[in-house]
Amino acid sequence: MPRRFGPYGGAYVPETLVPALTELEATWRSARRDPAFRSELRRLSTTLGGRPTPLYFAENLTRRARGAEIWLKREDLLHGGAHKFNNALGQGLLARRMGKPRLIAETGAGQHGVATAMIGAALRLETEVYMGEVDMERQRPNVERMRLLGARVIPVSTGSRTLKDAINAALRDWITNVRTTHYLLGSAVGPHPFPSIVADFQSVIGREIRTQSRRAFGRLPDLAVACVGGGSNAIGTFHPLLRTPVELWGVEAGGPRGRSRGAASLTRGAPGILHGSLSYVLQDRDGQVAATESISAGLDYAGVGPEHAWLRDSGRVRYLAVHDDEALRAFHWLAEDEGILPALEPAHAIFAAVGAARRRPRSQRIVVTLSGRGDKDLEVVTHAAR
Ligand SMILES: *Cc1c(COP(=O)(O)O)cnc(C)c1O
User: Fold this and answer.
1) pTM above 0.85, yes or no
2) Do 145 and 80 form a contact (C-beta atoms < 8 A)?
3) CB distance 232 to ligand 1 below 6 Å
4) Among all residues, which ones are annotated catalytic?
5) Disulfide check for 268: which of 179, 228, 259, 264 has CB 3.0–4.6 Å away?
């Protein structure tokens, strides 16, 4: 696995972390080749996680668009209600393989914290989750879920008291406790080898899309669409399709309409270093990380995984931004047309996919990764003006 994607990626970390990153990479490389590890990963993905997730033909949504067929990859049906389980399980098994009894994680909306707490319980690993105080206030139910699952939630009161500060706190904890602790990073970001490991564990999404679309309509889709926060469900969707002719779109959070740049690092940011790797970052003129804004907590991050930065520059993937009000419209379309409440993150991807379907002939097939379910967003949605 490359340390860099073009110029992006790398490991800009204090020296104390280098041995841990090296050990993690070696463990992951040996685990990938170990049939026992692979079979345990497969067993728990199936029997605990619920894989494979279905590929669903959204017939009514297709009728609304009056163009290309829209198919949904149902990661919302995975254990915990989002794709985050794939990565939490994989890294949890790596921690166990390294003999580390303790997991730490960062969480913004709380979804990754919940996924880590679930895995920590199932694998008998002590679990502590860093969360900004502002996010704890905004995401009460997930704080409760983590506690019920036996994890300790540690409030972070520095900086903007949100996700980026929680990542900084988790990195500091890791530096101090690196011998007993695995840092279970929640997206395809951070220093090498995290972006590659997370992409690897999430690639089950794209592999299943490959097999299931051949079975469902006899070929690969013409276009695959996924939302991009840190970029893990998107890179998992894209990886197995990179060397095929399938068009790939990543959809970022454009935030509210007007002057805000939202959280669209790839479409509105510039190269910079954040959380240990070089990628696109939303920053001010002094290079300070900019404040972000999005209706979906899971996309509300100033950085993005380094492999996406390279896929953007190389032109292999097209990245676009969708506004808050557009994501909300797509949320209601999916609810009313298909009886599915999507999370607001993939609602951004749905909006882009419906737009694409309108402009394409009926013979084309579009697959959208429905990364999670919307129960967590009901309050936001019901309080937003329609
Ligand atoms: C966390 C989350 C995201 C954003 O994370 P990525 O790493 O970009 O995939 C998207 N959708 C859902 C449902 C999430 O919980």
Assistant:
1) yes
2) no
3) yes
4) 84, 106, 371
5) 264
